[in-house]
Amino acid sequence: MKLIRLLLTFLLTTVALFCLSQAVIVQSVIKLPTDTAxxxxxxxxxxxxxxxxxxxxxxxxxxLKENLLAMSDLLDEISGMAQGSKAKDFFKCYxxxxxxxxxDSYVVQFSYLGMTDNNPVLRASFKxxxxxxxxxFYFSSPLKQNTIGWKVKRLDNxxxxxxxxxxxxxxxxxxxxxxxxxxxxxxxxxYVEFYCCNNxxxxxxxxxxxxxxxxNGMQYGTLTSHENNEGLVVSGRISKKxxxxxxxxxHDQLHQVISLDTINRPxxxxxxxxxxxxxxxxxxxxLAKFKKYAADNPKAxxxxxxxxNTKFANDSQPLVISYALNALIVQKINNEHGFExxxxxxxxxxxxxxxxxYFAALNKITGINKASFNVKMWELIKAAR
Length: 385
Hints:
Helix content is about 45%, strand content about 20%. It is α+β, with helices and mostly antiparallel strands.
């Protein structure tokens, strides 16, 4: 029986790997270049481009390097599309359109299609520019071509692209928050291209995403990438307050310089609350909600609530007690000792049952341990302004 199970596991793994690495499918109805050599180069290059998704984006041999920043963003979106949300679901990649746009360039569209619960599913569709050179094709995002008529304004290290008008107050706030976050985490100075879109659908389209099931029904969103100390933000985020999310900005910048394998999420989220609020609430608004929760629960055991990841606002925009408490802890540490000890707390390791690694680091940095946690948290909450 063990041998049979091992054989079945091997066969299933082999099938999965085959599905994930198989060649793109080109049906007979697709009009490819008439020149056989060009046609073969194009399909061979597209296969190579998609099969190198496991490499760093900058190391993909089929990416047009002068378009690396935008293509890196698009590659992040393409990655993993052959795999569904369920282990048994795999999606095949079909070429759906090839259009010549110049002597050596083509627009190539491809889609991931498959079956889920016996129903046909479109997983995603993408559009890239293929440019011929050195006996193969190199691929790039159509971002620049799609925004060729947009206006441009540079504010120090951020260049904004927009169609009509730019909200200068918002633009300066983004630049301020970007530089503040980078200064805290000692990140190298970045130069950012920021595209202001009317909605998330437009943000996807200009980058080269015709459709992605993951984003089905999403009104707002932002697509980002970072390469060689340069950043790209394609913002489809329109809200009452800002075109960017300072909470997400914190995560985006931190995760460039610190490995996710070492980051303790509640501390990371606490920093994001403190420096960027959450769910379009400012930190002051989050704090007000948290203080009200504390006032309504005078016998709250913060250690138990922390370990159990309890929420203090449990609606469509949940707010988490461990995140709010860490915001107060980070604020205290930063005010008294600077941000280096905060980095030590952030990098205490991924969250584990009981949070022993977190409390060991917290005790070393602040002297707060599990025994004193409840009393110390009450002190921080009552003193918070």
